[in-house]
Design a protein that fits this description.
- By secondary structure, the chain is mostly beta strands.
- It is 0% helix and 43% strand.
- It contains no helices and 10 strands.
- The chain starts with a strand and ends with a strand.
Length: 122
Amino acid sequence: QVQPVESGGGLVQPGGSLRLSCAAPGFALNYYAIGWFRQAPGKERKAVSCINSSTGSTSYADSVRGRFTISRDNAKNTVYLQMNSLKPEDTAVYYCAVQKDCSDYIIPPGYWGQGTQVTVSS
């Protein structure tokens, strides 16, 4: 198990920004793809963004493309999700997950973080 840890969530006004972090002390994240997912109340968990390990290629859901940016700092063993121009519909619990690659959605429970709440409201 990896047990990644998310941080950086909070309450922000529409149009504001937040940066989420995903870390895994003692586990080298740079060898794996890291995905960000979110789950709003009463809705299914959905993929938001992913960054591959070998190529560093990134992918985004249509709903966040152009507003969110995923990146990784291998020296800090951390993956970030920079979220700009936030909208109320971005409100959700955000999870990071360690994946074999960005097309792999079979993710064991121990490879998910506990989630961090993002609330976009005036």
